[in-house]
Specification:
This protein is mainly α and about 180 residues long. Helix content is about 80%, strand content about 0%. This protein catalyzes the committed step to the synthesis of the acidic phospholipids.
């Protein structure tokens, strides 16, 4: 297994670590869990950079990297919702969107000749905004919730773009049959 894939696998492990730290009895739980979240963000940036820089891009990495991101993001949103730091409708919107993305990704991969739609810039921008919003909220920086709302809008835009790309891939596959 290459380094980028190992970093992606580590990110899968950071989600339960985030939950453990977030719900610990430590008075600094928000700050400490934010550090776990930052570590997840660093592994996300590094795995992509290393994969592209050293031509270590794999189908597994293209499929698992966004899944690791989604699991981490949903984990964080669930924790923040449970502690009433963000409204519940945020997790509902993002949860539905992510479930649809996962289902669409699985369908394309399993039923359409192993098609994987790699991350696009709009998806990356959405992720960056989300990470910033969570950090702002965790550290009590003003406008964190506003930044989260912006991240949700960009996420919904990214979803429509990914949906169009997915439909285009489906049409290409059907035309080739």
């Amino acid at each position: 297994m290459h380094v980028p894939n190992i970093l992606t696998a580590v990110r899968f492990l950071l989600a339960p670590l985030f939950v453990f730290v977030f719900f610990s009895s430590n008075d600094n739980y928000l700050r400490l869990s934010a550090y776990v979240f930052v570590l997840a963000g660093i592994t996300d940036v590094l795995d992509g950079y290393i994969a592209r820089r050293f031509n270590l891009i794999t189908k597994w990495g293209q499929a698992m990297d966004p899944l690791a991101d989604k699991i981490m993001q949903l984990t964080v949103l669930i924790c923040l919702t449970i502690n009433r730091l963000i409204p519940i409708w945020v997790i509902i919107i993002v949860g539905i969107k992510e479930a649809l993305m996962i289902i669409g990704g699985v369908v394309l991969y399993t039923r359409r000749n192993h098609v994987v739609i790699p991350a696009r810039n709009y998806g990356k921008i959405s992720t960056i905004l989300f990470y910033m919003a969570v950090l702002f909220i965790s550290f009590g920086i003003p406008f964190g919730i506003h930044l989260l709302f912006l991240a949700i809008l960009v996420t919904l835009y990214a979803f429509t773009c990914y949906f169009k790309v997915g439909m285009s891939e489906m049409k290409k596959y059907k035309a080739s049959q």
